[in-house]
Design a protein that fits this description.
heterodimer, A: mainly beta, four-stranded antiparallel sheet, B: five-stranded antiparallel sheet
């Protein structure tokens, strides 16, 4: 299995809602990532988990809360989002943790999030 | 700050033409990756270049890593409409953070 899966594919939520995005990989990768991508822009790194521990938080607002229940799963919990948080949220994984410079990432298809 | 500059930002050419896009930095990278992303989808890894001067071919796509490992190029021969997409280069900087270039948006006209 060489796939990163993400659910849901689309999500519409209000500013008072609580929702979660899910990501799963079964490639044995030990690093997992959340990115945010606005239209016509490159992906922006949000969080990195390496060996199930949060390694990088790129100063992301606390209304985004990541969770890594095990080495195959990565969640992003959303609460009290703003309309400007609407974007494509991408999950990725790579074989080793951050210390490996040969850092090929495999991306999921993304969750298209709309905040009303 | 280590940056990856991609050029051109946009490119629209006829099917069958050749093209080259560039990824440049003033800093050395231990490796660079090239991705292609289609609208509404995640980026798909095309290739990783590691050694200075390395050339890798993927069908009609030729990737080159500069001798000093500060730049890379992607050459497409006989472009086809299926090559349309956003081409992103990415590398790991000195702070062990993955950075992406802003991408080249390629449109191949049939």
């Amino acid at each position: 299995d060489t796939e990163v899966t993400q659910t849901p594919k689309h999500l519409v939520m209000g500013m008072t809602n609580k929702k979660s995005l899910k990501c799963e990989q079964h490639m044995g990768h030990r690093a997992m990532y959340w990115y945010k991508q606005k239209a016509k822009k490159p992906p922006e790194l949000m969080f990195v988990y390496s060996y199930e521990k949060l390694s990088i938080n790129e100063s992301v607002p606390s209304r985004f809360s990541p969770e890594c229940p095990n080495s195959s799963l990565l969640n992003l919990h959303l609460h009290a989002l703003q309309p400007e948080d609407s974007a494509l949220y991408l999950c990725a994984s790579s074989q080793e943790g951050l210390l490996m410079s040969y850092n090929e990432q495999f991306f999921g298809p993304g969750t298209r999030l709309t905040v009303l | 700050t280590q940056l990856l500059e991609q050029s051109p930002q946009f490119l629209s050419i006829q099917e069958g033409e050749n093209l080259t896009v560039y990824c440049n930095s003033s800093s050395v990278f231990s490796s660079l990756q090239w991705y292609r992303q289609e609208p509404g989808e995640g980026p798909v890894l095309l290739v990783t270049v590691v050694t200075g001067g390395e050339v890798k071919k993927l069908k009609r796509l030729t990737f080159q890593f500069g001798d000093a490992r500060k730049d890379s190029s992607l050459h497409i021969t006989a472009a086809q409409p299926g090559d349309t997409g956003l081409y992103l280069c990415a590398g790991m900087n000195r702070d062990d953070k993955i950075i992406f270039g802003k991408g080249t948006r390629l449109h191949i006209l049939p």
